[in-house]
Amino acid sequence: MAGDRGQLSNDVNACVDEVIRRVGKEITLGLPLGLGKPVRFVNALYQRAKDDPEISLHIVTALSLLAPKGGSSLEKRFMGPFVERLYGRIPELAYAKDVSANRLPENVQVSEFFFKAGSYLNNRSQQRHYVCTNYTHAVRDLMAVGVNVVAQMVSPGEAHGQPGQVSLSCNPDLTLDLIPLLREREAAGTPVALVAEMNQNLPWFGHHAAIEADRFDVLLDQPSGDYPLFSAPQMSVSPEDHLIGFYASTLLKDGGTLQVGIGSLGAALVHSAILRHSHNKAWRQVFDHLQVDQHFPVVREDGGTGPFEEGLYGCSEMMVDGFLYLMQEGILTREVYDHAGLQTLINRGDIPSEVSLATLDVLRREKLIDSPLRAKDVHWLVQHGIFKEAVEFKGGRLRIGDQSVEGDLDNPEARQAIQTLILGERLTGGIAMHGGFYVGPEQFYQYLREMTDEQRAKICMTSVNFINHLYDHRFGDQKLKAAQRVHGRFINSAMMYTLNGAGVSDGLEDGRVVSGVGGQYNFVAMAHELPGARSILSLRSTRSSQGKVLSNIVFNYGHCTIPRHLRDIVITEYGIADLRGQSDEQVFLRLIRIADSRFQQELLKKAQKAGKVDPAFKLPADWCNNTPQAIRRAVAAAGDASLFPPFPFGRDFTDEELTLGKALKGLKAATATRRGKLSTLLQALRARDDEGRYGSLLERMGLSNPSGLRDKLDQRLVIHGLQQLETPSDTGNSKT
C-alpha cells in the first residue's frame, strides 16, 4: 500500500499493519454505534492485540451487537436454529463475545456509552468502564479519551455511479464530525488512522453521508468477504403496547415532525399512525371507545384524528424501519428544504410545491432574490427546482439551450418568457427523513437496497449533532432547524416514571446501567425549546419481577434520566398525562390517573402523606378501570380481531417458534420464584404427550428422543409449557 491516504487493500492483516505503522501500539479505537462496525478489521486488530501484549488497545463505542444465545438449556435449544438462520453467515464481533464472557486480555479495554438494554447489568467490567454521555457529546468525549484510530463499515460508490466515493450509510452520526477533528489533531502532530471497510451489502445513501474515499487513510476492499448485515428481529407488540402506540398516534399533528425510537412501542405507534391514515373509521371507533378527547383534552389542542393530508417529516437520531412503512403508506411525505427563508414561506403557505411566477414574486417580496436576477439568484433557483436544471446565467441573462431571456421580473415580456422557458414544475431537493443511524430487520435492509434513486434522495443520513439539538451546525443553523421541525413530536420510551415528574430510562438506583441516555435528554430538551413541540415519554404501566406485578409509575426512585423540570407528556396503555406547566398536585394526580388500578390507591396515599395531594381527594370512578381486561376490550372495539396484530410488520419467527416462544415465556414466568419453580417441576414430571400432538415442536427443540436426565426433564418442561397454553385460564391472556 503506497501513498498517504486512500490506500486500498484486500488484506485485512495488511490494514492492521498499516494502522500500527501510523500510530504505533498505543491504540484508542473509535467505532460506530451499532451496525457500522467493520467486523473483519476489528476482529483482526483485536486478535493482533491478543497475540501481542505490547499493544494497548482501548475500544470506545456503543451498542456492540451479538446474536442472542439464551440462558437456560431450553432457551439455548430454542435460539440455536433461529440464530443460525439469521446470523449464521455473519462474523461475530470477537471483542464483544469476550466482553460478554469476561475474558478480555489485560491489554484490552472496552468502553461503551450505550448498551443493548440489560445486556451488561451483571457484567462488572462493562459497568466500570461505561461512559455516561449525551449522544451529542460523544464526539467530544471520544476526542477527550484520545481516540487516534477510527474504523467504519462503508458502502462503495462504484455500483451507484459514484466512483471515488463511499457512503457512511448506517453511521454518519458521529463520523462526519469526528473526521475533521482527527485531521486537526493530525495536523498538530498526533498520528491518526482512519479505516474504511467496504461492504457491498450496505445500502448506499448520498447527501451528507457520501464522502470522498480518500478522506480515509486505509480502505479494506475484499468483496469476496462481504458479509450480511446484522439484523434486529421484529419484536412482538402486545395489546398494552398497541394501546400506548394508539394514544401516541392521537398526538401527531398533520404537517408535523416525528422522532421515534426502536422497539415494540415505536412499532405500535407507527402501526396506529397507519391505521389513523389508511383505516380511519376503524381507528376512530377505538378513539371513541376510549373517549380520548373527553378524558385527555391535550389531544384536541396538540393532536389530530384525521388522515395525514400534509404528511409528516421524520427527524430522528435512529431511522427505524417504521419510517419506511410510513413512507410507503404516504404519511412520511412532508419535505423540508435547506434554506430557512424558503422553509418559512412553505410553512406559512406562501409558496406551494408547484412552481409559478407567483413563486418568484413571493421570493422577491421577501428579499430572497433580486430583480433583475443575479448569478447567485439563478443558481439558488435552479438548486431548488424553481428554474429548470439546464438554466444558466451568462452575460447578465438567463440562458437555456440556445435561447436567452432577460431576468427583469418587472418586464411583462421577460415574465412571459420565464414562465414559458425557464420555470420548473415543482420544488426539488426536499428531504422527508433526516436520520443519524439505522439498524433493523433484514427486510428493512433489503428495502433500502432496492429503493429507487428518487426514493433514496428523500432520505438524508447525517450528523447526530444536526438532528439532536438546535445549535448551529455546518449542515444547518438554529433558524433552519426550527423552521423545519414544526409541530415536533419527540417520542421515546422509559422504564419508570416518578410521581413528581422524573423519567427513569437508562439505569437502576443501585448505579447499574441498563442502556444509556443516548439522545433522549436532547430530544426532551429540544421539545421545550421549539414552539409547538412536545416531548412524549411512553412506558408500560407495570412489569413482572420475581413472580410479582409491579407498577412502573412509582412514588420515587433513586435514579432519573429526565429531570422533573423537563416533564411534559407521559403515556401508558391507560392514557395520556399532560404535565407541562402543571402544579405538583396536578402532576401527581395525572400520573396516578394513568397507573394500573392495582396500584393507584397506594400511590395516592403516599402522595397525600407527602403533602402533595389534598387529603380529601378520592379516586374518581372512571379512573379505576385501568385493568388488563379493559385493554382487551379497547383493542377489540373496532370489531376486527386483526386490527392490532402481534407482528404488524412481519416476523422472523416461524409459526412453530412462536408457539414454543409463548410456552417458554410462560415457563419462565411460572418459575420466577422458588415456590413456582418447584411447583412447575412437579407438574412437568407428570406431563406426557402420549398422542404425539407436540411431535414437530419437540423435534424443533431437539427433544424428540431425549437421552440424558437433563434432556428428559427439558422435554417434560416443554410439554407442560405447551399444555399450559391450552388451559382455559390462560386463553386470551398470554402475550405474544
Written description of the protein model:
The protein is α/β, with parallel strands linked by helices and 736 residues long. It has four domains: 7-225, Glutaconate Coenzyme A-transferase (3-Layer(aba) Sandwich); 239-322 and 451-633, Glutaconate Coenzyme A-transferase, CATH 3.40.1080.20; 340-422, no CATH class; 655-726, no CATH class. The chain has 29 helices and 25 strands. Strands 1, 2, 3, 4, 5, 6, 7, 8 and 9 form a nine-stranded mixed β-sheet that branches. An eight-stranded mixed β-sheet has the order 16-15-11-10-17-20-24-25, with helices on both faces. A three-stranded antiparallel β-sheet has the order 12-13-14. Helix 2 (39-51) links the parallel strand 2 and strand 3 (56-61). Helix 9 crosses helix 10 (280-290). The longest helix has 17 residues, at 709-725. The protein starts with 6 loop residues before the first strand and ends in an 11-residue tail after the last helix. 46% of the residues are buried.
Category from helices, strands and their pairing? alpha/beta
Can you count the helices? Answer: 29
The level of helicity is 25-40%
| CATH homologous superfamily designation of the largest domain | Acetyl-CoA hydrolase/transferase C-terminal domain
User: How much beta, percentage-wise?
Assistant: 5-15%
CATH class of the largest domain: Alpha Beta
Largest sheet: 9 strands, mixed
GO molecular function: acetate CoA-transferase activity; hydrolase activity
Protein name: Acetyl-CoA hydrolase
Organism: Marinobacter manganoxydans MnI7-9
Pfam family, one: AcetylCoA_hyd_C
